[in-house]
Amino acid sequence: MLKKILPLFPLFLITNVQAQTCNCKESYQWVKKTFEENDAGYAYILKTKGQQAYELHNGLTLKKVEKITQLDDCLEELKNWVRFFRTDHFRFTKTKEAISVQEAAGNSKPVRDSQFSPEEFKKYLSGKKTIEDIEGIWETRGSTVAIKKHDGEYRGITLSAVAPAWKAGDTKFVIKADLKSGTRYLSNFQPKQVDKVRVLGKSVLQLDDLILKRVLPGVADDKGAEEYYLVKTATSPFGYKRDSSTVYVHINSFNYENKKAIDSLLKALHNTIVSTPNLIIDLRDCQGGSDVSMEKIIPYLYTNPMRSVMAEFYSTPLNNRIWEELSKRADADKEEQETYGKIASLMKSKVGQFVNIFGKDVEETNLDTIYENPRSVGIIIHENNFSTTEEFILKAKQSKKVKFFGRKTGGALDVSNMIEAVAPQGNFVFEYCISRSLRIPEFPVDDMGIHPDFYLDKSIPENEWVNYTSKILNYSRRAH
């Protein structure tokens, strides 16, 4: 059953990128026209919010883009324009050519501490009797950073880095002494404000989306901090038997390319899962992917038939190119190619219409086996869950075994199946959606998100979420 289309190709050829500056008005007009004519959610939101509000929004945007000459500023304003329709399920990405032009034109230089001595700093650390602050040596995604307090602030100084542009002694970030804000230096050494600093346990430090793990001084930290670091840095799914009553699994992505890794992990853990009363599935930072990647998880949750509402696709000449592309993909088998070819022909005959290519409005999952274990399943969710992950959540909510923990999801599911279009100037890619769920308007998810059964408030730090979920599952098991 085709429910989510395979990874897609850009629909325009990339043109030459001449300079770091851009014609933002021209880019805005192209994005506006492309979105109005092709996005599956455009007409629905326009009807909801009204033409007058839309025209006012367009007028304000036009005044802003006429004054913008820098690409980064332009893309931010284009994002603000699309947010009239939804907060997510669209994307603007600079092309490699544009990034190269920006880097060539950039004149930022690293802030370097030539006096810093790693050896002296390690000797200094060895003399500290207690760990009272964040001074130490930390690692992040293959790079190491020394954090030293100097002149009332903490400086993160590069010791080694994966990126060749970074050299030993370059300042990676500066954090204020109160650990509430600071400054990071990006790959082009441009400064960026850090809005949120979090110290989790004694071994994990998070600066917005940058996460570090303490290497020196060594600490025997709690399992929660270690798990949280793995969750935030994992590039593949992982799992293990956490204790005598709980199996823990983290799914980092439902991308089609990740299906094999998910299936392999579940196969390796199968006997453990079906002989253990509790299962925790951690979906933090799992942003979406393909429905086929969730198939092997469903049997562990299943207690009764599960219904999934289908989607319909918007037919336009631009959108329909993707079906032709898919029918010619070398990695698709003959049956898939024929299926996509038939869809392409159908869509061409229905230009300007929404088309249900599935032949039914609802798909129902019926399984023969209901596992005795796990008896209780806790699924951890938060605001960085979108798209297919939310589809999985809607399906899992129908199980009598499942409870959800965390915060509400991001809300990007009503319109979906993003495809790419490259701007005429060749400096960015715009992704929009070509399908609309048959759930709307009765059961919307976009912008509202899906709420957990157990809201984990700010007094429960994220490195304690798994512990808290495990505790509640054990209470539930004892109650039965």
Automatic annotation (TrEMBL):
Gene Ontology terms: biological process: proteolysis
Xref: Gene3D superfamilies: 2-enoyl-CoA Hydratase, Chain A, domain 1
GO MF annotations in UniProt: serine-type peptidase activity
Signal sequence segment: 1-19
Keywords: Signal
Domain Tail specific protease: 247-454
Domain of life of the source: Bacteria
InterPro entries per the UniProt record, alphabetical: ClpP/crotonase-like_dom_sf (IPR029045), Tail-specific_protease (IPR005151)
Pfam family, one: Peptidase_S41
Protein name, entry field: Peptidase S41
Organism (species): Chitinophaga tropicalis
